[in-house]
Write a structure and sequence with these properties.
The protein is α+β, with helices and mostly antiparallel strands. It is built from 25 helices and 10 strands. The strands form 3 sheets. Strands 2-5-1-6 form a 4-stranded antiparallel sheet, with helices on both faces. The longest helix is centred in the N-terminal third of the chain and has 35 residues. The two termini are about 20 Å apart.
Length: about 800
């Protein structure tokens, strides 16, 4: 590593030029990054649930992509109906809109002289105005249950427009359509209220709000870390250069995404903030060592080379453990988590390389220009020192109590963690006060539901759906589904066939039944198509009538509701299905993807958790050449991570695509604190020979760096709190919490374990222990030889020169 550092310092412009060229290359790739908030990308392309979902979308036409709800005391008045007509006309003219259906133009099935009469509820160009005409429209709407809860509320206080988009419309096109719809309905507000939602809109708006988040959170995390870096260094280079290095790494990472066709999702949108908060530590370590040496008179190019070389190994080892924990996410079956793991690993590796090459090169240029480092001391007030004294006291004098409290916390946390639920519910990702969530809640309350779910019956052969036996099975299953909680509406081709049969018998309610003859059903469907109903059933039967589906409108997109539906359908198929003409009954829809996510995210959490621990133990064991120290290093992570899950369980925070990365983040970042402490302990036990003195000395030196680092990372992630998304805000709070708890565990639980169960370490000279000693991050007012600012008496003065450490890190 010394050769690389020496080259960077002696040939700085080559290194700077190379880094800038690579940065410019990746910078030009960033505009090609695509935003894809669709639910289906959460699962792998070969996932059976995802395959069924996409196949179903190809076989059946969309039923409703966007819902526009209008609420009024009574919508059956000329003014409100006129607004519906005008809004319908304007929406139909929006590019990308395929069809708009309202209570005015929805098809009404009635009998006529020539058979079936399929015509709009209100003829084009006409509008009910008199009391009698309005009464007739109300009676028509009430005459068929299919209309109720879909296009009109039971009490007539609300009506909705169903908008179907062209198949060619991309997700990026939906946001402009949504805002165009808002502009249209805004013109007609008063006294009517309008609300717009729908599964397609919710997905598209996630991408829109992601961009808003990036514009807010990335500058905010830079401002926060600038403040912390200024407090640490009190000079321009120390404040700016760490952020420059990690900013370059972030550009490389985001620029890499379009090259591998990785879209921006809810999870990957956190990448810039995560990289800046975590990756800045490498630059801080390098600069702190260079500045400390310069303050002691070891300045110039040789000083930069010496300091950067000395710190390179511990920084690399700390970086590798963090990268290893992020790589563990690549074992996940959740695609965004896998992508986040790969990209964050690349970004941290880039930040590591830039810190050890680009930063020394920049420092060399500054030195050649005569820009000398001038120290700016902190005030004499030390708020960290007393805290470290307290930790030292309880760790050494109350070791058993610390271990006991930790064990109790672990047990309680496991109990709380068992209450954690996983779910993928897009609308709940938005804040409660956001317009889309308010609209969705109102529409779910007034109408059948904004979330669509499909229950598909597959026949044995084409035209099997026309078989009365199959239709009766569909009808029976549909009635059972309507009896479930949170199922607001269930519609199928059965409803249309019953209505046709009734219409062909002069509207007699007694004939609202399924015909006994398959041929008669076929005739009805043919008449319906020829009489103006062509294409109206494409959402309910496929092209050859081999398959038909029951469309459910649900009040929630929750995977748990989907599981209830699946259980009912499976129970019906196994116990109550009578006809042999039904080959299979299966379920699909966005809620089924959420259900599959619930299963996979738990499996992924367990696998990534195990892989992280194994990789970290292996790396730390190799680093210290001690398997016991490798195991000791992860102990301070166990209690905080389970405590994190316990808090999630008690507060109702769900395991989702965002919070699923917390364990890996905790391991990747928190392991550095253990390495800091164990490295110092390993050195001090060689110097002091006493376990208690080694622990005390380690706490008073490395403890300061650990606390500063934890506070900086926690502050970096807390900037996620003002995110537009609830789950991102929760991620910021939980990561900040786990950073604080892991640092506290490293300064209390780990020393207590070392005190009670001291490991046997092979005798090594001070020079050997230095080879793996991590970088220090002292504020500029704390100099070598002044670590006793926390009340510790330096006892190393009598140690032979060949065993003394002049530059602790």
């Amino acid at each position: 590593m010394k050769k690389i550092v020496r080259f960077s310092v002696n040939r700085p412009w080559r290194v700077i030029g190379a880094v800038l060229c690579i940065t410019v290359f990746f910078l030009f790739q960033i505009p090609r990054v695509k935003i894809d908030p669709r639910v289906e990308i959460v699962l792998k392309q070969n996932n059976p649930v995802e395959e069924v979902y996409n196949r179903n979308r190809q076989e059946f036409e969309s039923y409703a992509d966007v819902l526009i709800g209008m609420l009024h005391d009574d919508v059956y008045n000329p003014g409100s109906l006129e607004k519906i007509r005008r809004i319908t006309e304007e929406v139909e003219n929006i590019p990308g809109v395929k069809k708009v259906t309202s209570i005015l133009n929805v098809k009404n099935i009635a009998g006529g002289e020539e058979g079936l009469n399929v015509s709009p509820m209100v003829e084009e160009g006409e509008l009910p105005r008199s009391g009698e005409e309005l009464k007739e429209l109300r009676e028509k709407a009430r005459s068929w249950s299919v209309y109720e809860g879909v296009y009109i509320t039971e009490d007539g206080s609300g009506t909705s427009l169903s908008v179907v988009l062209d198949n060619t419309v991309e997700t990026d096109d939906i946001v402009p359509i949504y805002y165009t719809l808002l502009d249209i309905v805004k013109k007609y507000e008063g006294p009517e209220e309008f609300f717009i939602s729908g599964p397609t809109v919710v997905e598209a708006l996630q991408g829109h709000y992601m961009i808003k988040d990036l514009k807010l959170l990335v500058p905010l995390v830079n401002i926060v870390l600038l403040g912390f870096l200024f407090l640490f260094f009190r000079n321009f280079r120390g404040t700016v250069l760490p952020l420059v290095s990690v900013g370059i790494a972030s550009i490389w990472t985001i620029g890499l995404m379009p090259m591998f066709d990785i879209p921006l999702t809810m999870v990957t949108s956190v990448l810039p903030v995560a990289l800046i908060a975590v990756g800045s530590a490498y630059g801080i370590h390098v600069l702190e060592n260079v500045f400390s040496d310069a303050e002691e008179g070891k300045a110039g190019l040789s000083g930069i080379i010496t300091a950067a070389t000395r710190v390179s190994l511990p920084v690399i080892m700390a970086g590798l453990t963090t990268i290893a924990s992020f790589i563990s996410l690549c074992t996940s079956a959740i695609v965004p988590l896998k992508q986040f793991g790969a990209l964050s690993s690349f970004g941290l590796l880039a930040a590591l390389m830039i810190s050890l090459t680009f930063l020394p090169a920049v420092l060399a240029v500054a030195d050649s220009r005569g820009w000398k480092y001038r120290p700016h001391h902190h005030s004499s007030r030390d708020c960290i020192g007393p805290v470290l004294v307290f930790f030292s006291r309880i760790s050494l004098r109350r070791s058993g109590l610390v271990l006991g409290i930790s064990a109790v916390l672990l047990v309680l946390s496991v109990g709380g963690g068992l209450q954690v639920k996983s779910d993928l519910n897009l609308i709940e990702d938005f804040r409660k006060g956001s317009p889309i969530r308010i609209a969705d809640e109102v529409l779910n309350e007034k109408f059948g539901g904004t979330s669509l779910f499909n229950v598909v019956l597959d026949g044995m052969e084409p035209d099997d759906i026309k078989d009365p036996a199959v239709l009766r099975e569909m009808d029976a299953l549909q009635n059972r589904l309507m009896g479930m909680n949170n199922i607001g509406k269930a519609v199928s081709v059965v409803d249309f066939i019953k209505r046709m049969n009734q219409a062909m018998h002069d509207g007699d309610p007694a004939f609202y039944t399924i015909p006994e003859s398959k041929d008669l059903v076929a005739q009805y469907l043919l008449l319906f198509s020829f009489s103006g109903g062509s294409g109206e059933l494409d959402s309910f039967v496929n092209f050859d009538c081999k398959s038909g589906q029951i469309l459910l409108q649900m009040k929630s997109q929750s995977g748990y509701l989907a599981q209830d539906v699946v259980n009912l359908v499976n129970g019906y198929r196994k116990q109550d299905l009578k006809t042999s003409r039904v080959a299979d009954i299966f379920t699909t829809g966005l809620a089924m993807l959420a259900k599959e996510f619930n299963r996979l995210v738990v499996e992924s959490q367990a696998s990534s958790f195990a892989v992280s621990f194994i990789l970290v133990i292996f790396i730390v064991s190799a680093m210290f050449r001690s398997f016991k120290l490798g195991c000791y290093s992860v102990v301070p992570l166990v209690v905080p991570i389970f405590l994190n899950f316990g808090i999630m369980g008690l507060t109702g925070i769900k395991l989702n695509a965002a919070t699923a990365v917390i364990a890996s983040l905790a391991i990747g970042i928190g392991i550095d604190y253990s390495i800091h402490f164990l490295s110092r302990y390993r050195h001090e036990i060689t110097m002091q020979g006493s376990v208690e003195k080694a622990i005390e000395r380690s706490l008073h030196t490395s403890g300061r760096a650990i606390l500063y680092n934890a506070l900086a990372v926690a502050a970096g992630f807390l900037v996620l709190v003002p995110s537009n998304f609830v789950i991102i805000s929760q991620l910021g709070i939980l990561v900040a919490l786990v950073m604080i708890t892991t640092s506290l565990a490293s300064l209390t639980l780990l020393p207590a374990i070392l005190k009670v169960f001291p490991p046997r370490l092979a005798h090594r000279t001070a020079e050997t222990t230095m080879s793996v000693f991590p970088a220090r991050v002292f504020p500029q007012g704390v100099h070598p030889g002044e670590e006793n600012v926390v009340g510790y008496q330096d006892n190393t003065t009598d140690i032979p020169t060949n065993r003394r450490i002049e530059h602790d890190m």
